[in-house]
């Protein structure tokens, strides 16, 4: 029994470890509320993560038109300019200018009680790079922002 189970175990370990060498999706959850706040100011992504699945939940009650939130990731150097441009882009564009390469990743805008998820590759991020996440709904980015650390 012991001799027979060893190859099985080896195969099982191989099966478990092989896919992870190619893709490791790490889950991140963040919340926004009616007080125009995210529930965290720092997100850490381990270097081993090849993809991030980010879920944004709006824990408040106000509709998206009044107190909508999204989650946008940019280099800190691009943050202010992208936040300004994004706030004018309209809710139909998720308050991100169409095709704007400064937005590394972004979610749609959600209202109270709603949530949304996106998955993005960490190949877009440099280890130790300086990244800021924020909400680009008009007037929110000064309060709703934080640091993203990769690596
Ligand atoms: Cu917001």
Description:
- With about 150 residues, the chain is of the alpha/beta class.
- It has one domain: Cupredoxins -  blue copper proteins (Immunoglobulin-like), CATH 2.60.40.
- The chain is about 25% helix and about 30% strand.
- It contains three helices and eight strands.
- The strands form two sheets. Strands 2-8-7-4-5 form a five-stranded mixed beta sheet. A three-stranded mixed beta sheet has the order 1-3-6, with no helix packed on it.
- The longest helix is centred in the first third of the chain and has 21 residues.
- The radius of gyration is 19 Å and the shape is globular.
- It starts with a helix and ends with a strand.
- The mean pLDDT is about 90.
- It binds copper (II) ion (CU).
Task: State the name of the first-level CATH class.
Answer: Mainly Beta
For this structure, what is the CATH homologous superfamily?
Cupredoxins -  blue copper proteins
The major pleated sheet works out as: 5 strands, mixed
Distance between the termini: 43 Å
How does the overall form come out from the CA principal axes? globular
What is CATH's topology name? Immunoglobulin-like
Arithmetic mean pLDDT = 91
Radius of gyration: 19 Å
Helical run tally: 3
Q: How much of the polypeptide forms β-strand, as a percent range? A: 25-35%
- Name the poorly predicted regions: none
Structural class: alpha/beta
Bound molecules: copper (II) ion
* Count of discrete structural domains: 1
Strand order of the largest sheet: 2-8-7-4-5
Q: Count of DSSP E strands?
A: 8
Range of helix content: 10-25%
Order of helices and strands: HEEEHEHEEEE
Query: Per CATH, which architecture?
Result: Sandwich
